[in-house]
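Handout, section B. The chain below has 1291 residues.
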Amino acid sequence: LLKQQKQRDQMISSLTRQLGRVLPFADGALKEAAEDNADILRKTIGKLYVLTIDVAEFSCDYVKRNRFKRLAKSLISTQDQGRINELSGSLKEVVEDFARAVNIEMLKTSRTLEEKMLLDRLNPIQAGYKLDYGCMEGTRVSVLDDIVEWALRSCNGGISSQNTNPSNVYWLYGIPGIGKTAVAHSICAQLHKNGILGGTFFCKRDDPDLRDPKSVLPTLIFNLAEMWGPYRKLVADKLRKDPKLTRHSAEDELFSQLLESLQSHPSHPLVMVIDALDECGDNRGRNSIISSLFAASSRVNWLRIIVTSRQSSDIETCFKRFDGRYSVKDLAADANAQADILFFARSKLANVANEYDLPEDWPGQAKVEEIVERSGGLFIFVDTLARLLEGGLDPDQYLEQALSVGPGNALERLYNFYATAIHSQIGQSRREFKSAMGTIIAVGKYRPLSDKAVAQLSGLRINIITTLVNKLGSLLYRDATPNGGIRVRHLSVIDFLTGSNTSEDLKVDITQANRDTGIACLKVMIQELQFNLCRIDSSLIANQDIADLQSRVDQNMSEALQYSCLHWSDHLSHIPETNDGEVMAALDTFTKVPRLLYWMEALSVMGKVAVGDSVLRRIPVWLKCLQTSVEERIEDALKFILTFQEPIKISAPHTYISGLAFVPTDTDIWRQCSGSFRNLLVVEKGRKKSWPARPSILTGHTGEVLGIAYSPDGRRIISCSSDNTIRIWDAETGAAVGEPLEGHTSSVLGVAYSPDGLRITSGSDDGTIRIWNAETGATVGVPLEGHASLICDVSYSPDGRRIVSSSDDGTIRIWDAETGAAVGSPLEGHAGCVTSVAYSPDGHRIVSGSYDKTIRIWDAETGAAVRKPLQRHNNAIYSVAYSPDGHRIISGCYMTIYIWDAETGDPVGDSLEGHTDWICIVTYSPDGHRIISGSYDATIHIWDAQTGAPIGGPLEGHNDCVRSLAYSPDGCYIVSGSRDRTIRIWDAQTGAPVGESPEEHDSSICAVAYSPDGRRIVSSSRDRTIRIWNAETGSPVGNPLKGHTDWIGSVAYSPDGRRIISGSNDRTVCIWDAETGAPVVPPLEGHTGWIHSVAYSPDGRRIISGSDDKTIRIWDAETGAAIREPLEGHTRWISSVAFSPDGRRIISGSGDGTIRIWDAETGAAVGEPLEGHNRGISSVAYSPDSRRIISGSDDSTIRIWDVETGAPVRGPLEGHTLWIRSVSYSPDGCHIVSSSSDQTIRIWDAQTGAPIRGPLEGHVGSIYSVAYSPDGCNIISGSRDRTVRIWDLAK
């Protein structure tokens, strides 16, 4: 019996020990279960706790009952034995259940981790609220209470997916400095405290991530997914099923659509807060965000949206589109604002008093009230004043200065206060202040920089920057990043400094600041970039395997250099069209290899190779119009980085090993670097001579190509076909991008990109319109249905908010591009199929063409017809388009094109005729100067949009109807789609298929000249060659003259015709034997910049040259020796030089806008500079009698000057619409000829200045050079279009 008793005691002990081992794990698991909403595990642990209590009660009772009974040999009853067995069995079951529940929760945890990893693909931005950024305790109480009460209001009978509440969006607006952001932070804090904060995004103009519209919705989607599990699961499932979905491509798929498909909903509202929306992106981006927010909030009634911003017109207009569906409050209308700001002021000033040990009531009630009155309700005024007082030596003095600001509204008084605060701190250092602030503002858009980096880019000493930032602590601060980037405290500071009403001593010209910063970036890279910058030991090790690579980057690359490598072109892209010599000189130096290779190496070690092509593509379009080799080098570099991007990305040394080793031989990169780097691979066979040409023919469609379009950035081409598909092509390589877009069930007749390039819309024979994600090719939403027949054409509105479609059902429909909903009723009026439709550039009008032979113009907002139909065509109209300026409309039908006045509807000029069959498509060039048309006759025609004259011959290559055409955004290319199932790309300047080499010069013609006997023409080109031509037949004479290593900008014959001289961007002058083409003497060296102009003296004994180095040099024509010192006086590049016919004078024209006359014998300046042009001088020439000088300028005018007095005689002669490139007198002095970037030549009466001939048209590029033949019967011209033209003046 005792033995049985002992066994039962051991069973009780074992039972309690087992519980003791399990309970600690259960406690930890219960905590996790509570946080993760793990119901199964929580219930199992509950059973375990109940069992623990049962065991404890039984054990205590067991011990108590049996302690004395054992002595009396009263053994345990069988009832106790049964209870022990029962409890042991229950424990075993619970432990097993606990183990199973833990396994289940482990699987769920694993699933959750996977979901979080998938959500990380959204790449959310850290844009949350900060508690210490909110309103001062005790202020804005009523505003905060009202908004939080609005957020917490009932949800109309419970949470569901059916939103019947019209006001789920709240817009809080106000003027700068009124405290919107502080209110937003406080709102977030209260919402968070209530457990209903669903997401935040605080926009900031000086932060690249926080001002990017593409970051807002992905971040909010991520935030909401973290808050609500069922939504997180849907988002993760979507991302899991489609690996191509990214943060920029999935907004619609992951936001509105998934919200609508939710099966379970939270038991309380969830609120998203977006602050300072006006600081995010451009109008289009902000409108897109607002539309998406309204769309999402309309799907479920538990989602609330709060937006704060300034009352900018575009945001207000967008909100008004959703009138009645949002609540709104002007923060200036807060009834308690005056009391709040008084409280705020007292608190801030109390801190100042405490710091300076001033009386507690300082500065007195009257002063405090005056401060509040001066603030105009702007908290930023009081905050800035307090910071100013805290940083000064005498707060009373600063306070008096601050209160002395002049009258005006609240914003004007704030700006006046800023001026007072700045003046009080900078003293006479205003130049330094403007330079420093220009740099801080310019770089702040991309990344705030430290004192040292700002000093380096502004050209100021670091102690000046440090002192300025310290003194201006009320306006500037250093952020918490390791480098301590300098930022402005409030956006209103930037608005003040860059505003039009700011005094000149403080005003920052942001264009000038970008120019100066861009040049500084170039100079930093020129000075600091070098080979193997980070001392990488072996090319066998990938960048990612170098453990201390980032440390090496930080040690060997200054902050200014790292910034410059990424953003130099950002700053240059803000410069308007210019011939700025300093910009061009810096670009010229930087773009010379091997420095460009060093730059690519730097990108590699920084891990930024992927942005290299974007940096190069941002080079301003105006650069392409300048006669400079920089453009060619940048194009070379772009091809290099696109070709070798992957190896450069993997390993920095492979910039040279894998890149340079295989670069084509006929490139600057190879010519200048092949001998400079050792141990390069030797390519024995197969090395290319030149970069692969752009493909001129794209194939892939199995049906006729019916529609075509370029993406807004010009990097993609889309096409649609009768094979029911849409294809996306790389415009540079011609390669297909991704798989064909499939979904339509019949021919796709029309296709268009959205203005932001993120969406594609298509219209089909199946009667539907589809919207596609341009990046992934996925469909967005459901097909748009409503037309009763096939869709003929589709187009986006300029702001991207609307899609317009035309149909065979005779109607036009307008759709909301975000939601796909029809907007208004169909536009009706046409009596037949509506073949073509387009928005006006301002988005106010829609034009349509129809089989009923009419064109109609509609009000895009109301859908009403604007005027009577435009009628002149005798056949069905297949295509209509607006000119880029919106002033003209073109239309095409059978063999004819008409141009119409968009305002009056009247025809302009005669019809354009030349096609021999139906015209399928017409469109304008981006600059509006050209019209192109495609026809059933398989040709493309180019027309002058002003005169209607054909330009060149038809573009031929397609062997069937040309159904679609489009210009590239930069106007350089034309793409066409045909019934022959091919897409062709054409050079818009020459009309040749891209990739075809021209027969002679293979680049722009820079200069042309006649031989003295008129039998020969000489031309020089960007292709570094000089060619001689038979003036009678136009055939080339001999081989090209080669020797220069860069563009040849000027060429001339000697007076006896035996020599030719040339000046080049390689900074040399060459003298050639005109008969043999051999060099006569070694190149003439001395200039330190590009040589723009060369000329012989009338006796042939001297040569003059004008250069980018601002000097003119005189040379001995026989020996090539320099004669005397350079002629100096101009402050910018010398663009043109000439001898007077009597040889006694030299004239020069410069980028500084002046003309100077020099004594040819002594080199002394004669008289004062001739001034009158308001831009740089491009060309000068003497009249044959030496009494007059003519000048052509970048201001598009020509002036005539009296040589003796320097006074203007005539002019300005006006007619050209772009820069004058070249001017020349006729041999008899009666006429003047001029050429221009407007691609025309004009002839003027030299006596009266009246135009007498022209414009002469035919060139399809800027005309760089023009000259009369010696007999005055002909004119020659050389152009960017690579041709030399001879004009017979007798015809």
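Note. The chain is about 30% helix and 25% strand. Compare this with the example in section A.
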